[in-house]
Amino acid sequence: MNAPAQPHRGTIALENARVLRHTRFDGDQHVLRLEAPRCAGRATPGSFVHIRCDESLPMRRPLSIMRAHGGEGWIELLYKVVGRGTRLLCERRPGDTLSLLGPIGRGFEPRARRPRVLALGGGVGIPPMIFLAERLHEQRGVGWKPLVLMGSEIPFPFQPRPSRIVVPGVAPHVIAAMPLLDEWGIASRLASRSGFPGCHDGFVTDLARGWLGSLDATQHAEVEIFACGPTPMLAAVAKLAGEFGLPCQVSLEEYMACAVGGCAGCAVRVETPEGPAMKRVCVDGPVFEAATVFPAV
To answer: How far apart are CA 144 and CA 147, in angstroms?
Structure first.
């Protein structure tokens, strides 16, 4: 008897991606644009790639997709140099070729009945939030009302500027935003404890709590939270969602070896209707319902 097909099989492409652009930002952060048409045509917000940083390194590195253009065949990745692999990756130049697997994983699933999408990104968890915002921007007829809040303790991987979009429920002095989102007509605000001009002085979850507290019952019923960032931040987001009784999807960050479900090295405990289970972040996730990963929050 044939084994049942796994949902991730047949969706992950192996391709040699050509470097189109490689931009460095403060904090040793880099945005890498790659020509990868097979991946670009299938990528969804929350999915990621497993990339070979250099031929001298046998192990690939997982990187979230920040943007993807299926028609033009490119994807963008944001990463921070943290070790040998990303240090070698930052040396790649336009015209170089990198081997990648992707797109991998189950992404975010926004629901039209909750059009007030609250997207929270922390540090290198920012990319999926930008990708989600871009896809919502492309679906103009649905009536999405996204708000993207991003937090970082190092300079942001873009040049913030005062937003042209008013956000009721956010203090008037918190005005720093991501220019690209402003151009799309999507409201965004920034948070940091590093004293950056125009940013909320504190955690991104505190900024979100203030905005949620300004909504009435009808508006609350339209909100769903989406988040990506370090585990402590995601736990705080899950707690925030519980406070306001809101659905919440989180994208987990885990070390992984194969990224295609074979090694189970990225398994995490998840609550299911049948009881606790170990799920693989790479192919069962990386996106999960927050309450299943942080049930005690």
So the answer is: 10
Q: What is the mean pLDDT of residues 73-93?
A: 95
Residue 236 DSSP label = H
Model confidence pTM above 0.90: yes
Pick the more confident residue, 7 or 174: 174
**Which sign, positive or negative, has the C-alpha torsion 116, 125, 249, 294?**
negative
Number of residues written out for the chain:
297
Q: Would you list the DSSP string of 38-102? A: HHHHH--TT-EEEE---TT--S-EEEEEEEEETTTTEEEEEEE--SHHHHHHTT--TT-EEEEEE
User: Per the structure block, which two tokens stand in for 171?
Assistant: 């203090």
Whole-number Å distance between alpha carbons of 60 and 12: 15
Query: How would you write 186-224 as a 3-class SS string?
Result: CEEEEEECCCCCCCEECCHHHHHHHHHHCCCHHHHCCEE
C-alpha 74/C-alpha 68 separation (Å) is: 6
Separation of alpha carbons 103 and 287, rounded Å: 14
Angle 246-247-248 from CA coordinates, rounded to 5°: 115
pLDDT in tens, 196-213: 999 999 999 999 999 999
> What pLDDT score was predicted for residue 10?
56
Domains of the chain in sequence order: 13-104 (2.40.30.10), 116-293 (3.40.50.80)
| Region for residue 109 given its phi and psi (left: phi exceeds 0; alpha: psi -120 to 50; beta: otherwise) | beta
Rounded distance between C-alpha atoms, residue 56 and residue 206, angstroms: 43
* Pick from 182, 287, 279: nearest CA to 228: 287
**For residues 164-169, average pLDDT:** 95
pLDDT bucket at 296, cuts 50 / 70 / 90: low
